[in-house]
């Protein structure tokens, strides 16, 4: 979800079902009526004189064996280890396009007490980076779209960015990922799409120069606009016109061990065609679901279908081993008159069912051994976001600290009702434990 503009639904694919709306309409339900391992190594015999226990060679033997071990490692390729950039299965997007949000120091307290370990921001604001020092929280920071072209064109700009936004804070601030841009491919700016790969590589090279490339993941999230076909899930493919931009990225992420990030919104798919999509399928409520005839796999919710369409697209492109991770998903609790699906009850239902589903730590029908991990959008309602009314109502919490979604739990309250905005809050341990139980997904 772009930070400064509303989401734009991609063009429907030519072989998708005859409906309008989102390209991940794979996602749609049927009509409501019938509802690593290293390669084998050869045994190498090393002949080393035994020597007497008190001989100099005998004393050096452990050192010689250790040197031999490291020399052998250099001759055998090893599979790239996956990044540990996500703890558990649940994270949250901490957007800040608002004029009434709590200071980052208070947000850190809220996140810690909610036991939410994975946090993504859409920039590299230093007040946030300072607040997250020694917090124990995983933080993914971002390079806004407006900086991508410069960083791509000039490697020194990438080094400057890392020196300014990473070096002074890491490792006290646990920066685990740098997100380059947001939903660039599939947009209208071809120059930006052309610059994306160069920016990713330059940032990675800057991290490598600081010996941080093995500790901080570099990635970029994609919208559903990158898909050409997405229904049924097994037919998922990327748009052919985007492959010149996607393939270099996929090659690079395959080498670094990074996942493929996708923004998956059943809410948007449902809103694009509410007449033909069962809202229960989108909300993970009981429903008839869909059957993928090719794989004979049954889907009872749109969220898993979206993820498996992404896996199918990666497989078709030659990257069947790449992990899919959800960079954004959520449901709006309010919206314009033209957004009937944006209701408090629907938002509560989707977020509650999604939380339960992620807590199971399971995979999808097509990738049952790949545990699904997702960043929820968003931590707060953001009153300055542009676009449809729903854009300003994705928050789990209101700016005053109370819960935005009525999940039956009590929220945070101000120490004084006369204080405007967010001031120093008095926390009640009893209330907090009740409020955040539904969010305690990672340990």
From TrEMBL:
What this protein catalyses is: Hydrolysis of (1->3)-beta-D-glucosidic linkages in (1->3)-beta-D-glucans
Please provide one cellular component term from the Gene Ontology annotations of this protein.
plasma membrane
Q: Which residue intervals are annotated with compositional bias (Polar residues) in the record?
A: 1-22
**Recorded GO MF terms:** glucan endo-1,3-beta-D-glucosidase activity
Stretches the record annotates as Disordered: 1-23
Its Enzyme Commission number(s) read 3.2.1.39
Q: Which UniProt keywords apply?
A: Glycosidase, Hydrolase, Signal
Q: Name one GO biological process term.
A: carbohydrate metabolic process
Q: Which Pfam families match?
A: Glyco_hydro_17
Superkingdom in the source lineage: Eukaryota
What EC class does the entry list?
hydrolase
Family per UniProt? Belongs to the glycosyl hydrolase 17 family.
Q: What is this protein called?
A: glucan endo-1,3-beta-D-glucosidase
């Amino acid at each position: 979800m772009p930070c400064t503009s509303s989401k734009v639904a991609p063009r429907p694919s030519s072989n998708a079902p005859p409906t309008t709306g989102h390209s991940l309409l794979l996602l749609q339900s049927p009509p409501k009526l019938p509802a690593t391992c290293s390669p084998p190594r050869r045994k190498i015999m090393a002949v080393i004189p035994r020597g007497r226990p008190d001989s100099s060679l005998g004393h050096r033997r452990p050192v010689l064996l250790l040197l031999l071990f490291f020399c052998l490692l250099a001759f055998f390729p090893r599979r790239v280890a996956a990044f540990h950039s996500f703890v558990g299965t649940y994270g949250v997007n901490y957007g800040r396009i608002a004029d009434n949000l709590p200071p980052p120091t208070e947000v850190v307290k809220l996140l810690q007490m909610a036991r939410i370990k994975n946090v993504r921001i859409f920039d590299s604001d230093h007040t946030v980076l300072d607040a997250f020092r020694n917090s124990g929280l995983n933080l993914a920071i971002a390079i806004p779209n407006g900086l991508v072209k410069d960083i791509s064109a000039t490697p020194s700009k990438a080094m400057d960015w890392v020196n300014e936004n990473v070096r002074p804070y890491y490792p006290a601030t646990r920066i685990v990922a740098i997100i380059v841009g947001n939903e660039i491919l599939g947009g209208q700016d071809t120059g930006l799409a052309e610059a994306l790969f160069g920016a990713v590589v330059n940032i990675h090279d800057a991290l490598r120069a600081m010996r941080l490339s093995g500790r901080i993941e570099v990635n970029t999230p994609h919208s559903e606009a990158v898909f050409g076909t997405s229904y049924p899930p097994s037919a998922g493919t990327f748009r052919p016109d985007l492959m010149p931009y996607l393939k270099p990225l996929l090659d690079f992420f395959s080498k670094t061990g990074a996942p493929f990030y996708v923004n998956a919104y059943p809410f948007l798919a449902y809103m694009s065609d509410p007449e033909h999509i069962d809202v229960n399928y989108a909300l993970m409520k009981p429903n008839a679901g869909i059957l993928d005839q090719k794989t004979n796999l049954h889907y009872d919710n749109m969220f898993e279908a979206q993820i498996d369409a992404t896996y199918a697209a990666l497989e078709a492109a030659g990257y069947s081993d790449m992990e899919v991770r959800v960079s954004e998903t959520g449901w709006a609790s309010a919206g314009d008159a033209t957004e009937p699906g944006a209701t408090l009850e629907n938002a509560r239902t989707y977020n509650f069912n999604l939380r339960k589903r992620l807590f199971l730590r399971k995979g999808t029908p097509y990738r049952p051994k790949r545990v699904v991990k997702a960043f929820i959008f968003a931590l707060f309602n953001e009153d300055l976001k542009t676009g449809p009314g729903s854009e300003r109502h994705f928050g789990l919490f209101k700016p005053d600290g109370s819960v935005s979604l009525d999940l039956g739990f009590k929220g945070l309250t101000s120490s004084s009702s006369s204080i405007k905005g967010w001031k120093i809050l008095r926390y009640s341990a009893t209330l907090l434990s009740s409020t955040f139980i539904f969010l305690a997904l990672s340990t």
